[in-house]
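As a warm-up, study this chain.
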Amino acid sequence: MARILVVANKTAESPDLLEALKAKGTEHEYVLVVPAGEGRLEKAADPDAAREHTEPHLHAALEKMRAEGLQVEGSVGDTDPAAAVQDACNFAEFDEIIISTLPLRASKWMKMDLPSKAQRATGLPVTHIETKQSD
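Now compare it with the structure written out below.
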């Protein structure tokens, strides 16, 4: 059984991400990290509000994943997605990272090349899943 870090924000509740995780296997243990808030300004202005804004989104995604038989736990991470990946990997061991983003034209994470940064920072294999934003 592999332990897999899943990093998603706007796509955390996406059916595309859910299907990709189910295809990977329900026997794995998943850890979902959703970076806090929508950006650095929100975090700088009020870090607690950024966390509070993100928690319902995290819980909804976890509920959907668990309803499909996935073994998943989750947490709100740093607003900076690269820091959220690094923090998660500093406190737990993972076999793989899955990063879920919006399509390239709309994804801030792809513009910063988060999958490559995560792979270089952790040495772990990284899978990128491009999804639509969940409704």
